[in-house]
Write a structure and sequence with these properties.
Layout lengths: L7 E10 L2 E7 L2 E2 L4 E5 L6 H8 L7 E6 L2 E2 L5 H7 E4 L11 H6 L14 H13 L15 H14 L4 E5 L7 H16 L3 E5 L3 H7 L2 E6 L2 E6 L1 H4 L2 H8 L3 E5 L6 E5 L2 H12 L1
Helix pairs in contact: 4-5
Keywords: ATP-binding, Cell membrane, Ion transport, Iron, Iron transport, Membrane, Nucleotide-binding, Transport
InterPro entries: AAA+_ATPase (IPR003593), ABC_transporter-like_ATP-bd (IPR003439), ABC_transporter-like_CS (IPR017871), P-loop_NTPase (IPR027417), Siderophore_ABC-ATPase (IPR051535)
Protein name: ABC transporter ATP-binding protein
């Protein structure tokens, strides 16, 4: 591994479901210590890329490199100590309470001669406190609301205490207040030194929180860089087919995407059809 190489990157990565290629020969570098957000239209390959970075999806060709080696070459526990993943639609095990689910984030730290420890207890308690689910500790996970459940899954990922954290649409099911709470928490973790990679749909959330944007369309990266450099009106129209204005967010001075009026959007689609 070169000293200039990031801990997590892809090398001519090709991803497919059966015969349908989603991503073809993609080279992506995740900057160490960044809060990287992947954006793009539906079915462009965002979540597919994230799954491959987490070793959930095996590449058709090429490789995902973690600390200079193909991620497939590591034992599962070694990957789980370096990289945590919150999937888009995790499956809740039947009959499990919140504290038990969060505790599963510590599995990589267990050994034959080292089972549950005070360090594990502290990691679980801290993760639950950060995500504000401590008062749900004895509740069954499948009885929770979608937003509560999402925070519990995030707590499990935090309990894993990995330097790299991958989040696939972490604000799904959350109301506006809790969306910002989760993203604020991610920003805090980033400021504490973690590398965060998240898939988000909301461009304004992405621009407000990301230090680095990866903009995808049709399985390819169209742009990558700081939000202020990447997010332009031309890019939004090319990627999302949506006329807009990009201005400074008055609260954060980050790019803010304002969709064009209904009339201007209709006029734009009429010109495209013609």
């Amino acid at each position: 591994m070169s000293t200039n190489d990031p801990r997590l990157q892809t090398e001519t990565l090709t991803l497919a479901y059966d015969k349908r290629v989603i991503v073809d020969r993609l080279d992506v570098r995740i900057a160490d210590g960044s809060f990287t957000v992947i954006v793009g239209p539906n079915a462009c390959g965002k979540s597919t890329l994230l799954k491959s970075l987490a070793r959930v999806l095996k590449p058709r060709a090429g490789a995902v490199l973690l600390d200079g080696q193909a991620i497939a070459s590591y034992p599962s526990k070694q990957v789980a100590k370096r990289l945590g993943m919150l999937p888009q639609s995790p499956v809740v095990p039947g009959g499990i309470v919140v504290e038990e689910l969060v505790a599963r984030g510590r599995f990589a730290h267990q050994k034959l001669l080292r089972q549950w420890s005070p360090e594990d207890e502290a990691a679980v308690a801290g993760a639950m406190r950060q995500t504000e689910v401590t008062d749900l500790a004895d509740r069954f996970v499948d009885e929770l609301s979608g937003g509560q459940r999402q925070r519990v899954w995030l707590a499990m990922a935090l309990a894993q205490q990995t330097p790299i954290l991958l989040l696939d649409e972490p604000t799904t099911f959350l109301d506006l207040s809790h969306q910002f709470e989760v993203l604020d928490l991610c920003a805090d973790l980033h400021e504490q030194g973690r590398t965060i990679v998240a898939v988000l749909h909301d461009l304004n959330h992405a621009c407000r929180y990301a230090t680095e944007l990866i903009v995808m369309k049709d399985g390819a990266v169209l742009a990558q860089g700081a939000p202020a450099e990447v997010m332009t009106e031309d890019l939004v129209e090319r990627v999302f087919s949506m006329p807009c204005r990009v201005m400074n967010d008055p609260e954060t001075d980050t790019p803010m995407v304002v969709p064009a009026s209904r009339e201007r959007r209709r006029a734009g689609s009429s010109r495209v059809s013609a």
